[in-house]
Design a protein that fits this description.
five-stranded mixed β-sheet, D-Maltodextrin-Binding Protein, domain 2, alpha/beta, globular, 2 domains
Length: 289
Amino acid sequence: MKVNKLILSALVGASLIGAAGIASARELVMGLIPAENNEEMIKTFEPMRAYLEKKTGQKVKVFTATDYAGVIEAMKKKRVDVAWFGPLSYYLAEQEAGAEAFAVGIREGSDSHTYKSIIVAPCGNGVNSIMDLKGKSVAFVDPASTSGGLMPTYMVKQATGQMPQDFFGKFTYAGSHDAAELAVKNKTVDAAADNDITYPKMLAKGLITKESNCIIAESSPLPGSPLVYRGDLPKSLKGKIRDAILNAHKEIKVAGYGNLSHYVAIGPKDYQVVRDMVKELGLKKEQLK
């Protein structure tokens, strides 16, 4: 009996050690929300992926989805370990997948990580403010986008007393920030929501002009898009990931949403403004997907 117990204990111990070895050897998966074209996002984050692989000693793979909800769901199902989210998609991942914000990028030439939501429309078409969009065709980005969904909804409600779907004549989601801008340029819609990160990038590339896409409204500052990890990852692994990201600028040109100089530490409390907006607008989780 004692011999059998010893054998059983040894087998269980070996099994646990083997499982731990498999867990530690498993590749890390980094999820990216489709704020812009997926191929471009993957290309932008490649230096960070390779750097993180080097620093953690684990293979790092990039995961993208056709919408924001896809990345949140992947983290919920433990198919994504680290992710780049917008503030609102982070809030949803926090609720559904135990996500923890740990770092945010600082924009070049600034000491701030904040950005703004904007609404654009073609110049000279009689649309100069949110009030001029009554009955018009308008595209936002995604229900789970902060600058392309939540904040413009808040802006419309503040300006008109109505929700976008009630105030606009036709209300759609373009799927990404660049798609929303191009819908305005191509006159598929009368106006669209975006932010002050994608807008100047598209101007610089000649994809839009200040005449085809005039800014008619802008928001107050929003907290920047955070890097997050699953809360149930091993503490030592989270520490490796966090330290690697916070020191990345010392070895590589850091990548992220917009032109960044480096990353700084951030925490859940820094995103309370997002939680407050969701509550004030009376939005349910199912309405943000």
